[in-house]
């Protein structure tokens, strides 16, 4: 990979979100069980988190498990949950040592009580860390998040806590899982697919998109840097004229 330009640092996006796609296809292409693909995907996540911190990214959000993934075969869901539990048990100390704060967004009610406790412990342990914020989207769906926000707003309007005419985009933003985070500047998807798959639908309205042909288990810091370099050459107009 070519060296990054000297001006690379100032144009690193504040928030990068990644749809980690292709674990199963990577495994299938090699005649391996899907569980191995997910294990290699977890290793890619570890590399990417470390690389993002080294590149100076402030917020990294990884799409780990969607609300639709619950419909996968029970054995695969069990493998994914065991891998998640292993990650939460074994990786949090390293995240903490490296000054990385962990947060999780999504529907925790569908996760096991043991995993929810691990998530809560990890969030508490790392809450004061400021080097980078790592957010894992687990049991997450963008439409469900927006519907949840709408329900909460409706309840507050009915209770008289807010007036209906005060409901605008800024107020809706405050009811989302990501209320205390900036919107993603850059969304990356691996494995060559070109769709959002119900990920951060509200937050990605003006995100730059980069699609990477590699399957997720092959992804690493150099690929992240290449995506950021592509991002740095784009002009972001937010609907305004050039």
UniProtKB/TrEMBL annotation:
It holds the Pfam family Prenyltransf. It is an enzyme of class 2 (transferase). Its cofactor is Mg(2+). GO terms for cellular component: cytosol. Coiled coil: none annotated. Homodimer. Belongs to the UPP synthase family. This is Isoprenyl transferase.
